[in-house]
Amino acid sequence: MKESSYEAKTRYSGDTVTEYENKRKSKKWDAEQLVYKKIISKLDKNTKILDVPIGTGRFLTYYRDSGHKITGVDISEDMLDYAEKNCPENFEIRLVKGDAEKLDFDDKSFDYVISARFLNWLPPEVFLNVLTEFSRVSKRGIIIQVRLIERCSISDFIKHVDISYKTVKKKIIKKLFVKGKTYNDYYLHEYKSTMDFLSKEFRMKQIDAIDTRITFPKFQKETFYTIWWTKK
Ligand SMILES: C[S@@+](CC[C@H](N)C(=O)[O-])C[C@H]1O[C@@H](n2cnc3c(N)ncnc32)[C@H](O)[C@@H]1O
After folding, report:
1. Residue 150 in contact with residue 190, Cβ under 8 Å?
2. Whose CA is nearest to atom 26 of ligand 1?
3. pLDDT tens digits along 60-99
4. Which domain holds residue 79?
């Protein structure tokens, strides 16, 4: 089988890692933290969680506070080093270098798989492979973030038009002045097919929209969701 390649697989090393959290702290980051904190605190104590990709370990204090057992996987050694240093005192975690596309764990090794800011970097066929892997290694469910696209209604359009205008302006400025810094790989997955795919094995427990953008003139809505799915 041909090895997959996408930007996120190789870009997280050196300064990209040391500056990762500072560069990303924003309203959106805080909103995500809040949603994950709430979900993590609702899970039973001692829940076995696989956080993939663990990145800098942004949820580690929440895991500790709720008494969960954590394994973190990432493909980047620099990210794993950061997560290790970021680990709160008196909290033990297992960190493993690995590929989300082929997780080196037995079926149902974990209660939950948790994943943030990852799936939107995956090309469609890799995206479905990774979701299948998440489902294979989890017993009770998955808590994921995904950017989904669907057609939008006129009322949605009117509600979001101001935000969309700001986003478009930002994109143009970026294109003109910071060309080299914009990402090449960035995927929007289709809402219906993603929901249909996951609904075969899971039922949705909670869905939180982190941010929504409207694409004009196509009348499409893209929303970055955090979704908690439990096994059927
Ligand atoms: C945008 S960061 C997200 C990190 C963290 N989950 C967060 O929310 O901040 C993307 C992460 O995916 C990791 N990554 C990329 N491809 C991967 C793969 N195939 N398997 C495991 N980790 C991967 C990168 O090394 C990086 O740490």
Report:
1. yes
2. 55
3. 999 999 999 999 999 999 999 999 999 999 999 999 999 9
4. 7-231
